[in-house]
Design a protein that fits this description.
- The chain is α+β, with helices and mostly antiparallel strands and 463 residues long.
- 35% of the residues lie in helices and 20% in strands.
- The protein contains 15 helices and 18 strands.
- Helix 7 (189-200) crosses helix 8.
- The longest helix is centred in the middle third of the chain and has 21 residues, at 227-247.
């Protein structure tokens, strides 16, 4: 971790000093739900230090068995009305304690979840799923490094004005496609500078922000780091960007496709395996794959991603809306293949030597980062165990390559694929797969029950 990424991180002693001086009076104690949203409590700094820092706090287990509207959903084995919706213990991971510098006088800590009574880890918790995959990689002799690119749209609207307009006719932060435009970026710098500085001073290293391929669309790139830390930072970034925008009377969306006429928003994740002792990139090597020199480990990990990555599409694209993003000529992938620095591919190999890494371009901005990294690791490590050789690299326009296997075209298809995946069941267990299958099918069912505006405009008068 660089010195800049240590800025904003807190020890318990440092928090104690800040609370005593009145610099911090509130501690957010939070964890990610299945959507990747932060849920939890705000505590006084003194109470956190005296009680929660060592013992944690109790939260209702329905938080991992409800939908976006916080509706308790029947059918989960993990939590239900029949079982009384009991407590979980949210135990702070003090390595994540940091200033939440975008909020006044606040700190934030992320939690791991444990069953009450008993104290066993809650196996369906998203952060737990990724932590177990990282532990599995470590048992094989590897540490996992990752980097996230987050895309989102910014609007000159408050969340209240957007809701009042029923999310139609919204004013984006720019009137034209602003990909890499410095001039338009200057006009949006009030928001983006606050985001960059707010993250940097909260222990979240940022490489850059830039305009993206839509009016008002932005990309935020996080500095490469250990994968669990990277997922934590990705969730915190997505949360903080919304709060910073709201504080400026603006709004943002991380929907995968907020408007059918505009580019979708992705969450591209970069990954590589390293030697935990020497801190050397183990993907680097001298065996050519296409024109890329790499190691056996790199080749087998890539082979696993190509062979099994599509089985985790439901985690990479977890909503009905997610699948509107996968369109030809959109810079979002539609075919499962790998290429050398080709943005039409589901998996893109970038860098050389110490920087060699694999980019998964399938995930949308709406995905849960913990599940994305867990799915990428599950597929890649399966490739290493089975020594799966990747197909040759694809050259050209993958959108036109009809012979390639396709990314599932709907949430229903992706959920079926996930449910049938032997790799998912062997890696995460039947209970975890069943839990998330129910979550995904509930998302589909909730959409299927709604009469949309499209149906009304199409059929009300003319059918």
């Amino acid at each position: 971790m660089t010195n800049s990424q240590n800025v904003g991180m807190l020890t318990v002693d440092a928090l104690e000093a800040a609370v005593t001086l009145g610099e911090i009076d509130t501690v957010l104690i939070a964890f990610p739900d299945m959507y990747g949203r932060l849920v939890g409590k705000r505590m006084t700094g003194r109470f956190f230090l005296d009680h929660a820092a060592s013992h944690g706090t109790h939260v209702c287990d329905y938080l991992l068995a409800c939908d976006m509207e916080m509706d308790p959903v029947p059918g989960y084995k993990f939590a239900s009305w029949e079982a009384g919706y009991g407590d979980m213990r949210a135990a702070p991971d003090l390595a994540t304690l940091r200033r939440a510098s975008w909020l006044p006088n606040s700190a934030l800590v992320l939690c791991n979840l444990y069953a009450e009574p008993g104290g066993e880890p809650v196996e369906v918790a998203p952060r737990r799923l990724l932590a177990k995959q990282i532990s599995q990689a470590r048992s094989m002799g590897y540490s996992v490094m990752g980097g996230t690119e987050l895309e989102f749209y910014a609007f000159n609207e408050t969340y209240e004005s957007a809701r009042a307009k029923r999310y139609n006719g919204l004013t984006t932060a720019a009137a034209y496609v602003e990909d890499y435009h410095i001039f338009q970026g200057t006009r949006e710098e009030g928001l983006l500078r606050a985001v960059r500085n707010g993250m940097e001073s909260s222990g979240i290293g940022i490489e850059s922000t830039k305009g993206e391929w839509g009016p008002g669309q932005q990309e935020l790139n996080l500095i490469y780091c250990e994968a669990l830390d990277q997922a934590d930072r990705s969730v915190l970034c997505r949360h903080a960007v919304r709060e910073i925008a709201a504080s400026q009377q603006k709004s943002v969306t991380f929907m995968a496709k907020w408007d059918e006429k505009l580019a979708g928003s992705g969450m591209h994740v970069h990954i590589s395996l390293w030697d935990p002792k020497t801190e050397r990139n183990l993907f680097a090597g001298d065996q050519l794959l296409g024109s890329i020199p790499g190691s056996d480990l790199f080749r087998w990990f890539l082979g696993g991603l190509v062979a099994h990555g599509g089985e985790f599409t439901a985690w990479f694209a977890p909503s009905v809306n997610s699948y509107k993003r996968f369109q030809s000529g959109s810079f979002a992938p539609t075919g499962i293949a790998w290429s050398e620095d080709n943005r039409t591919a589901g998996f893109r190999v970038v860098g050389r030597g110490p920087s060699l890494r694999i980019e998964c371009r399938i995930a949308g901005a709406d995905a849960n980062p913990y599940l994305v990294y867990a799915g990428v690791l599950a597929a890649g490590l399966e490739g290493v165990r089975a020594r799966i050789e990747p197909r040759p690299p694809f050259s050209g326009d993958i959108y036109q390559a009809e012979q390639l296997p396709r990314i599932p075209g709907s949430l229903r298809d992706a959920t079926d694929t996930f449910s049938r995946s032997e790799v998912a069941r062997r890696t995460f267990g039947a209970d975890v797969v069943g839990h998330y299958e129910h979550f995904l099918r509930t998302e589909q069912r909730k959409f299927d029950e709604v009469v949309t505006d499209w149906e009304k405009f199409r059929f009300f008068e003319r059918i």
